[in-house]
């Protein structure tokens, strides 16, 4: 019997507030045994420092330490590495999630701008017809934001705004973060138990 190879997902983390969303998504995918190709924007690294206290000169070493101990594999790609595997459509992945997604990155994806690895990888998802999920985190929204989201939605991009729900009775910040990560996993039909579903016991 041929051994099944781990599935590959691309995760992008931008400078929008809410870096913890991307961190929790990466942890969850790794815990489920997937291979994660991680790209963090320069502004994303600043948010890591400001919101999570993450400060690192050796970024790859820091991430490997942060996400060690999981059955899945982490591959970190610097955002300037336009020659990385995920920049090519011939490299197969299950899809890409940008979580959180800044309005600048969302705009670049909507207009086909691919001047760094994150936006290039997103462009690959579009041209190859693969799943692309964006988790925008901004408020309030103006007309340009909304027009860009509508354009992407019409292209088949899944937009899951960072709007945690309260019907499941969250009691901590972790509960709210897990809810959003769970909604992203739902979009890929990945089984999880991150929150209690409406009408269910979990």
Automatic annotation (TrEMBL):
Protein known as: Flavin prenyltransferase UbiX
Record family assignment: Belongs to the UbiX/PAD1 family.
Enzyme class label: transferase
Record-listed E.C. numbers: 2.5.1.129
SUPFAM superfamilies the record matches: Homo-oligomeric flavin-containing Cys decarboxylases, HFCD
Binding site for FMN: 15-17, 41, 102-105, 137
Free-text function comment from the UniProt entry: Flavin prenyltransferase that catalyzes the synthesis of the prenylated FMN cofactor (prenyl-FMN) for 4-hydroxy-3-polyprenylbenzoic acid decarboxylase UbiD. The prenyltransferase is metal-independent and links a dimethylallyl moiety from dimethylallyl monophosphate (DMAP) to the flavin N5 and C6 atoms of FMN.
Segments forming domain Flavoprotein: 7-187
One Gene Ontology molecular-function label: flavin prenyltransferase activity
Gene name per UniProt: ecdB
């Amino acid at each position: 019997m041929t051994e099944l190879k781990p599935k590959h997902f691309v995760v992008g983390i931008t400078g929008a507030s809410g870096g913890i969303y991307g961190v929790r998504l990466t942890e969850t995918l790794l815990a489920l045994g997937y291979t994660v190709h991680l790209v963090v924007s320069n502004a994303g690294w600043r948010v890591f420092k400001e919101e999570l206290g993450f400060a690192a000169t050796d970024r790859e070493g820091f991430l490997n330490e942060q996400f060690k101990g999981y059955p899945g594999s982490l591959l970190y790609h610097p955002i300037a590495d336009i020659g990385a595997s995920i920049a090519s459509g011939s490299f197969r992945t299950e899809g890409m999630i940008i979580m959180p997604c800044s309005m600048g990155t969302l705009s670049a994806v909507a207009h086909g701008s691919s001047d760094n690895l994150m936006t290039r990888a997103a462009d690959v998802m579009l041209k190859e017809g693969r799943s692309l999920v964006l988790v925008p985190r901004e408020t309030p929204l103006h007309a340009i934001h909304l027009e860009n989201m509508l354009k992407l939605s019409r292209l088949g991009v899944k937009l899951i705004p960072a709007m945690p729900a309260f019907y499941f009775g969250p009691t901590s910040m972790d509960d709210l973060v897990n809810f959003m990560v769970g909604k992203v996993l739902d979009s890929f039909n990945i089984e999880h138990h991150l929150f209690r579903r409406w009408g269910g016991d979990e």
